[in-house]
Specification:
Layout (H helix, E strand, L loop, with lengths): L4 E6 L2 E12 L6 E11 L2 E6 L7 E2 L4
Antiparallel strand pairs: 1-2, 1-5, 2-3, 3-4
């Protein structure tokens, strides 16, 4: 999963980034992806998203 290109929502806008880590929430077991953004928004360089809940689109799925 690491290294995959992905579009993620940041401040309501889609932003392109790279998955740098895949982990799971301790209590629920939900998959979480740490994404490093290509172009930081304000002071946000990395975001954590839940692909089951957040609007996440992998670049190869376009």
């Amino acid at each position: 999963m690491e290294g995959r290109r992905v579009w993620v929502p940041v401040g309501g806008e889609p932003r392109l980034g790279t998955v740098v880590e895949r982990t799971y929430a301790p209590k629920t077991g939900a998959e979480l992806l740490a994404v490093e953004l290509d172009d930081p928004v304000d002071d946000t360089e990395n975001v954590v998203v839940n692909p089951q809940v957040d609007d996440v689109l992998f670049e190869n799925e376009l």
